[in-house]
Amino acid sequence: MLNKNSSIGTKRESSLHRSLKFRYSGDEGEVEASNGVYICDARTEKGEFIEVQTGSFGPLKEKARHLCKKGKLRIIHPIIIQKHIELYDTKGALIHRRKSPRKGNIWDLFKALLYAPELPLLKNLSIELALIEVTEKRIDDGKGSWRRRGVSIADRHLEAWHKSIILKKTGDYYQFIPFKIRERFTVKDLGKKAGVNTVLARKTLYVLEKMGLAERVEKRGNSYVYEKRLFLGNTVL
Questions:
Q1: Which end of the chain is more exposed for a tag (fewer CB within 10 A), N or C?
Q2: β-pairing, 39-43 with 30-34?
Q3: Residue-wise DSSP of 153-180
Q4: In this structure, are residues 173 and 213 in contact, taking their beta carbons and an 8 Å threshold?
């Protein structure tokens, strides 16, 4: 069911974004749903607001705070675990199709939360990680990034759906701290246990510290030492 504002903000959206908002709105929900102040990607039949956010959550901070005061908000964050790249010439002919070596994982969430680390503390907010495969359509038109040698990204399509991980409570984020309560560890220790690089481990700890789940307790040589904290159930109203 489309509402009267269904065309607002859709001109530049990808096919992937459009597919996800229709998937989560459900048959009886609506897309581009207005609550009077903001327009969100979708609203379910039960009234839950849906926002599909592929990048940083930073721009969502004020919008999320407002929507959470009106009802439940679920942020859908796609994790691309496999990307297929199709390269076309300017006439639309397929040059080749290949798999990207870059594979996303659930720890990528903390790249998105870096500029909104306290967002998960909002009452009525949940984050759903959608583990998917996508096809990225590229055009060799000389107008794209120099990193891609001028190749432009034209669109992204949902190729396959694998599963989702829903984070409803702040305590759900303990799964990202594979240590015991009060056990001490460094950024390097976390990276080793999680199987991620040091940069991502550092971003993860920054967010978890802001959420009150980890605490910096000392410095060991050039490394800060953290402890897993007991969560007391505080939320941001």
A1: C
A2: antiparallel
A3: EEEEEEEEEEEEEEE-SGGGGGGG--S-
A4: yes
